[in-house]
Amino acid sequence: MDKKRKKTRIAAVGDIHVRETDKGKWTDYFKDVSADADVLLICGDLTDHGRASEAEVLSQELRACSIPVVAVLGNHDYDQNEHTEIRKILAEAGVNMLDGDMIVLEDVGFAGVKGFGGGFNRAMLAMFGEPMMKQFVQEAVDESLKLDGALSRLETEHPDLPKIAVLHYAPISATIKGEPEAIYPFLGSSRLAEPLERRQVLAAFHGHAHVGTLQGETAKGVKVFNVARPLLQKLDKPLPYYVLEV
Question: Which Gene3D superfamilies does this UniProt record tie to the protein (predicted)?
């Protein structure tokens, strides 16, 4: 990486859970983050109940945001089967919605997917047993492959730029510590860590685990941050969003 390269301030938050009643609630928030950072990442659960009407509210609130926004959907955004419309509404509002895609902003490459569950390390679910179990595992495999594809394109087209991954589900167990261990398989999967290490990602951000740990790293040292808003608000020194300078 060029040592003379201008630093980029990346703000990240997940699980904002915007509701239909939130009109006017987020204006100051997005103004503040615009003053603090060069790019904003929203790591899934943009809406609370997965309704397009909630995305409409968010799209209006984002008018106060004057920096580029990159986002992925989360599990809540799928709940009413309106995720396609949610994605469309936010894309039309100028949000860079990623789903196996990549984008370069402020001399940083971003790749994003929602991710999926499946567990971690030796407890990771295998492709075995009933068809429904295999489908569950296949979803995690597919999300991992989408992430790897996006990172591969960044690596090929922009080899000198730092790479950042945007996720909803966790790629490591360290950042979900604090949640009940019984639900770990539903909070993320080690399959998501494989492309992070293979493509030498600088850092990855996720949400989903409201009671977790802010920072961890993969076995090969890729930094991972859990930026779920409920978690950031519960820190000893509460944060409205996490800022990483790259």
Answer: 3.60.21.10
